[in-house]
């Protein structure tokens, strides 16, 4: 669904994209119950195929993910290249803080960030998060599907409102 929205409205990929990598890596545990590096690569490649630039994509993880993930050397390589950003504590705080500082920012996560509602200075923090959140599903043998929580018309309206508020 989201893929067609980005094709129909290509200007939407100009906005930064924050990724909750802990969610992605833990979406499907492998048989050893470790977070999956392959799912991270699958998502990053999918986003690249949609036209998201590495310079506008911010995959953020908790500091302990490196010690838990199934392919530590490959994960460490992306950390060293600066493709993945390791937070100093819980990544959720950094993801939301980054998003709050932008005119508009997409957030790929399955999290509702309930513990952080008090930090979002909006009348309705649940709506603020859901308007920006893109949920995902990883389907074995098929790949990734992305789904925003709002329609393309609402996305355009939301972005226009956010940009006009920040410029006032």
Q: SSE order in H/E notation?
A: HEHHEHHEHEHEEH
What does the largest sheet look like?
A: 6 strands, mixed
Distance between the termini: 33 Å
> What is the CATH topology classification name?
Rossmann fold
Tell me the number of helical segments per DSSP (H or I, 4 or more residues long).
8
Ranges where pLDDT stays below 50 over 5 or more residues in a row are: none
The secondary-structure class comes to alpha/beta
Helix content: 40-55%
| Averaged pLDDT | 88
Number of strands: 6
The total domain count is 1
The CATH class, by name, is Alpha Beta
- State which percent range the strand residues make up: 15-25%
- Tell me the CATH architecture: 3-Layer(aba) Sandwich
Widest beta sheet: strand line-up: 3-2-1-4-5-6
Which descriptor suits the 3D outline? globular
Radius of gyration from the alpha-carbon trace, in angstroms: 16 Å
What are its keywords?
alpha/beta; 16% strand; Rossmann fold; 168 residues
Structure in a nutshell:
With 168 residues, the protein is α/β, with parallel strands linked by helices. The chain has 8 helices and 6 strands; from the N terminus they run H-E-H-H-E-H-H-E-H-E-H-E-E-H.
Mind explaining what this structure looks like?
With 168 residues, the protein is an alpha/beta fold. The protein has a single domain, classed as Rossmann fold (3-Layer(aba) Sandwich), CATH 3.40.50. The chain has helices spanning 2-8, 21-26, 37-50, 65-68, 72-81, 91-100, 125-132, 152-167, and strands at residues 17-20, 57-61, 85-86, 106-108, 133-139, 143-148.
